[in-house]
Specification:
By secondary structure, the protein is α+β, with helices and mostly antiparallel strands. Helix content is 20%, strand content 36%. It has three helices and seven strands; from the N terminus they run αβααββββββ. The strands form three sheets. It has a three-stranded antiparallel β-sheet with strand order 1-4-5, with helices on one face. Strands 2-3 form a two-stranded antiparallel sheet. The longest helix has 9 residues. The protein starts with a helix and ends in a 5-residue tail after the last strand. 13% of the residues are buried.
């Protein structure tokens, strides 16, 4: 039913983009709207970034993009788990953990901080 699901099945690749806390509003839009009905690039003001190892674009404004190809697919009843092989990681060398990256769990967004 999800648009991203069908795209991953079709292309057998995906990009994991790590956003920052300043991108929370764009993240909320991306997480609550379907790309089938909404041009998320236009709605959020984010920019597609050419990937190096795959055809699927990353997000230029995200400090980290992880390019993956599907290695294994596991059906979990109502969801599909796509297990990817990482082919390329792009990290903005100017980004040193500030601003904090965002994580999502159980319906809430969290700032991720380093623990030593």
């Amino acid at each position: 039913q999800r648009y991203s699901h069908s795209l991953i099945q079709e292309t057998q690749e995906f990009v994991i983009n790590i956003p920052t806390e300043q991108q929370l509003e764009a993240v909320k839009i991306c997480g609550t709207r379907s790309g089938r009905d909404t041009n998320k690039w236009v709605k959020t003001g984010l920019t597609p970034d050419d990937s190096n190892a795959i055809k699927t674009p990353g997000i230029a404004e995200c400090p980290v993009s992880i390019e993956c190809v599907v290695n294994q697919t596991v059906e979990l009843g109502t969801h599909t788990l796509f297990i990817g092989e990482v082919l390329q990681v792009r990290k903005d060398e100017m980004w040193k953990g500030l601003p904090s990256p965002l994580g999502y769990m159980n319906g809430k967004y969290y700032k991720l901080v380093e623990v030593y």
